[in-house]
Write a structure and sequence with these properties.
Number of strands: 16
Bound molecules: flavin-adenine dinucleotide
Low-confidence stretches: 356-364, 372-384
Largest sheet: 7 strands, mixed
Shape: globular
Number of helices: 10
Order of helices and strands: EHEEHEEEEHEEEEEEHEEEHHHHHH
Strand order of the largest sheet: 6-5-11-12-13-10-14
Distance between the termini: 39 Å
């Protein structure tokens, strides 16, 4: 077998970005995907490509790593929406550039997943659909198989509405413990979800409360709702390679924003860096040290801080954000390393070990999002 052959497992943003990079550099890529299409982990829900953690605009970063924007990707600035704090105070923030780019996830035509699939196929990636790989042979491989366990969950719905394009973010422990709830509206379609970093077993209660709050703060018509659930996984210490032969990328390696779960950018960048390490014969670990590790470590420190702020702290933060001329630099500062975050990181690491405590579900005929044997978790009984 030629040394220019690479196996990739998982057609998510990490695996597809790696595959696109490699074929463009003359490699033969076989990409194995367990499902018969991309995006089946998702539900046509809207997500955000965050645009605050780097000085460079996210779209410029994608362009630099060879990804075209052939999917729905709409900019949303501070003036396009609101935040509601625990006291339901309404806050609008100012931003000098889009706060995030709204994208769609799943298998619909305009989703990020389909856009990446198209780019990969046009570039010449050989995608082997419906093939679940549990091990790889001796050649070089990149594994981007997504999350392994639930460290945070989301419960929500996609629906149709007559509302204009907008977003709302809710920070309130009563509806989204240690996390946030969000509404994203684009061209008559909407996603509403509440996320939680703890107390997963009460997901239905939080979801019900979140819906009540949504209906209280805005007049909204909800048509053809379809409920969905999802989970994300981050690691204390990312595990990124085995024998320098298998490189792990994306959420599977632990490249996830531990603060708020904005993992897409990290998934794509780690896929790109895994490909670069093969193309340029450089250490993947060294490449990740420069950009990804500092951000991942800071996000864990931020998670610890956020989890200890409680509603009082969230009120203070939102009020501070309201008075800023531009929240982007402040958010960027928090997403990047500093002496204080380096000091907090070891504390956060020790604390983080308790995050997976809620592993078992005692509900009869369970359909919980978080539960590893729940229908929506796409997991198997043995995992419980
Ligand atoms: C509800 C929800 C909302 C989110 N919102 C945001 C957001 O707003 N912004 C953001 O940045 N991030 C968000 N995220 C996180 C983001 O979606 C993930 O971080 C990102 O998709 C990770 O990409 P990935 O390529 O690592 O994994 P995935 O997207 O999970 O892709 C992994 C792929 O591997 C395949 N696979 C798995 N095992 C095998 C196997 N053994 N063999 C073959 N194929 C396999 C899977 O079928 C899948 O297609 C959200 C997540 C959820 C659940």
């Amino acid at each position: 077998m030629s040394s220019k052959n690479v196996t990739i497992v998982g057609a998510g943003p990490a695996g597809l970005t790696a595959a696109i990079s490699l074929v463009k550099n003359g490699y033969d890529v076989n990409l194995f995907e367990q499902n018969n299409d991309v995006g089946l982990r998702f539900n046509g829900d809207f997500q955000g490509l965050e645009n605050w953690s780097d000085p460079e605009d996210t779209l410029d970063i994608l362009n630099r790593i060879g990804i075209k924007i052939n999917f729905l990707c709409n900019p949303y600035s501070g003036s396009d929406g609101y935040f509601y704090g625990p006291k339901l105070q309404k806050i609008q923030v100012k931003t000098s550039r889009p706060l995030f780019y709204l994208i769609e996830r799943g298998s619909n035509e305009n989703s990020l997943d389909q856009g990446l699939r198209k780019q990969a196929e046009e570039a010449g990636v050989n995608i082997l659909w419906g093939q679940k790989l549990d091990s790889v042979d001796s050649q070089t491989a990149i594994v981007g198989t997504g999350p392994k366990a639930a460290d945070a969950i989301a419960k929500g719905m996609v629906f149709k509405t007559s509302l204009d394009n907008m977003f709302i973010g809710f920070i309130n422990n009563k509806i989204a413990p240690k996390a946030y709830a969000y509404l994203l509206v684009n061209n008559g379609k909407a996603t509403f979800a509440t996320c939680m970093f703890e107390d997963f077993k009460n997901e239905k209660l939080y979801y019900k409360r979140a819906l009540r709050v949504l209906n209280f703060v805005i007049e909204i018509d909800i048509n053809e709702p379809k409920e969905f659930g999802g989970f994300v996984n981050f690691f204390n210490q990312p595990k990124i390679s085995k024998d320098n032969r298998i490189l792990y990328a994306g959420e599977n390696a632990g490249f996830q924003d531990a603060l708020w779960g904005f993992g897409i950018k990290y998934a794509m960048l780690s896929g790109y860096l895994a490909a670069r390490s093969i193309i340029a014969n450089k250490s993947y670990d060294e490449l990740c040290k420069a950009y990804l590790y500092p951000k991942i470590q800071t996000s864990l420190a931020n998670r610890w801080l956020f989890a200890h702020l409680y509603n009082i702290g969230y009120n203070l933060i939102l009020n501070k954000m309201k008075s800023m001329d531009d929240v982007i630099p402040a958010l960027r500062k928090h997403y990047n390393t500093s002496v204080s975050k380096k000091m907090i990181h070891p504390i956060a690491q020790r604390w983080y070990k308790t995050r997976l405590i809620d592993k078992q579900c005692m509900h009869e005929h369970c359909d919980c999002v978080w539960c590893r044997h729940g229908k929506l978790a796409h997991a198997t009984e043995e995992n419980c």
